[in-house]
User: Which sequence fits this backbone?
């Protein structure tokens, strides 16, 4: 087709508009939305089989008798179907047929306005027409005020402030997924309630967000209702409602009392936020106070209103007492630990102090984190794929004779090893001694992984032979993984030019 023919075709076909009408109040339609509807030849809208379209009711005063109306009626909404492709197949077939109906008008040179409540490209029905038609016809999308903005306005509260993260979730997600995402975010809006409401409410409760959560029904529309989410009966919730967990900065929790205090020991993983679990992220966000070694506290974003209590790495008992004292005064305290708090970290110190008077009644929870051994193993492949032992080479809290006995026992049992705290400025001989002990039980070519600063900016992961292990290349930020007699090393042709190490799960008999 020549350029002239293409231009003639473009003039001959109509223009497609996706028109956002806002949350329900006709006065919240934009000027542009009204203009487009007025100039359109065809006004199209989706509806359920009952034929009542909320979009049409919003725009009713702008629809004239000479408008051609196209009611795009869903064959199914939430009920079951006998379509051979199931629910999704029935909808896909419907969208194809609806797009073909609109294309016929566009091919005839008519301007088509597909109207939808809220914003056309935000969980809107129009988007299915857009995907099928926008590449074939001139198209413009008119944004609209979303139900989220309307809900916040009706509640009169900010959704997110400063560096807070707002998460928007469909209530149709599985309960576990909803719970994890609600726990991890600062503020949230859950849409598509209706029959999903019981699941959403349980997720709010499990994530600890129920006391903050608000409910908004039919924002800006007739029958509008707002209330605390906890006070809403499940059988009264329509689809056009949202659950809102608003800004914590703008809506700080109620003043603490002794009954609400607790200590949560949180593992931050071996490095930054990519290693945090949703549960840990939520506990850090909701805490009144953060207590921890300053290096680990620096990994946690600063939040308005939170108090931070940093200290040196060698005062674990004092740190635990501080956290428990704060909790006794009603504060929600997160003790920040590196890696997993239960592996050579703060959980033991907190529980030891918490088991003494006067702290026995203070609630204490321990949240798991990614420990350095697992992080390093993942970088190298799967060297801990079979039985393995975790041993600290630091003799600050136990004598070297105990460490040596445990190394011999683990090596004699042919366990792979994860060696924490292998060396520091004041401890320079332990790695050499450990290598000597291990060589009594392991072949010289046993693979040893030197994993330094895993997940950090100076990450380095190398594999050497046990006999070639150089203590001078090991510091306190290095973790050592020592293979068993079965551990394998291979160079894969995947362009990484790196060794992959794994320990088979099957151990030879005999």
Assistant:
């Amino acid at each position: 087709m020549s350029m002239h023919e293409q231009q003639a075709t473009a003039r001959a076909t109509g223009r497609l508009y996706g028109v956002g009408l806002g949350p329900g109040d006709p006065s919240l339609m934009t000027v542009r939305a009204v203009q487009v509807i007025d100039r359109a030849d065809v006004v199209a809208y989706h509806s359920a089989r009952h034929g009542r379209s909320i979009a049409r009711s919003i725009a009713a005063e702008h629809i004239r008798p000479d408008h051609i109306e196209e009611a795009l009626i869903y064959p199914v909404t939430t009920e079951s179907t006998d379509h051979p492709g199931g629910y999704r197949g029935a909808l896909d077939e419907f969208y194809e047929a609806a797009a073909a109906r609109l294309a016929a008008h566009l091919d005839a040179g008519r301007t088509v306005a597909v109207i939808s409540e809220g914003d056309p490209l935000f969980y809107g029905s129009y988007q299915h027409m857009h995907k099928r038609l926008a590449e074939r016809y001139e198209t413009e999308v008119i944004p609209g005020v979303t139900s989220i903005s309307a809900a916040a306005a009706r509640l009169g509260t900010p959704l997110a402030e400063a560096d807070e993260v707002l998460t928007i979730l469909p209530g149709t997600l599985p309960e576990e997924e909803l719970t994890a995402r609600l726990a991890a975010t600062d503020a949230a809006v859950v849409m598509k309630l209706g029959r999903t409401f019981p699941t959403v409410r349980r997720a709010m409760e499990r994530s600890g967000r129920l006391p903050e959560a608000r409910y908004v029904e039919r924002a800006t529309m007739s029958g509008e209702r707002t209330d605390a989410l906890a006070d809403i009966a499940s059988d009264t919730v329509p689809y056009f409602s949202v659950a809102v967990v608003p800004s914590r900065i703008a809506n700080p929790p109620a003043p603490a009392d002794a009954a609400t205090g607790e200590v949560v020991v949180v593992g931050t993983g071996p490095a930054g936020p990519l290693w945090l679990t949703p549960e840990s992220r939520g506990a850090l966000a909701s805490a009144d106070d953060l207590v921890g070694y300053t290096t680990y506290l620096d990994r946690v974003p600063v939040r308005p209103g939170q108090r931070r209590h940093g200290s040196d790495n060698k005062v674990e008992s004092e740190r635990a007492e501080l956290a428990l004292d704060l909790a006794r005064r009603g504060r929600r305290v997160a003790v920040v630990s590196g890696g997993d708090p239960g592996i050579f970290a703060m959980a033991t110190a907190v529980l030891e102090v918490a088991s003494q008077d006067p702290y026995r009644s203070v609630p204490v929870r321990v949240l798991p984190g990614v420990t350095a051994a697992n992080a390093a193993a993942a970088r190298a492949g799967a060297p801990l794929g079979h039985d393995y032992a975790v041993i600290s080479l630091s003799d600050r809290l136990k004598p070297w004779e105990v460490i040596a006995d445990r190394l011999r026992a683990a090596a004699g049992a042919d366990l792979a090893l994860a060696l924490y705290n292998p060396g520091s400025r004041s401890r320079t001989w332990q790695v050499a001694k450990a290598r000597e002990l291990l060589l009594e039980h392991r072949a010289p070519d046993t693979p040893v992984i030197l994993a330094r600063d895993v997940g950090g900016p100076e990450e380095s992961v190398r594999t050497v032979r046990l006999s070639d292990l150089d203590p001078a290349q090991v510091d306190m930020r290095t973790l050592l993984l020592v293979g068993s007699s079965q551990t394998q090393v291979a160079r894969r042709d995947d362009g990484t030019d790196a060794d992959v190490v794994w320990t088979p799960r099957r151990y030879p008999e005999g």
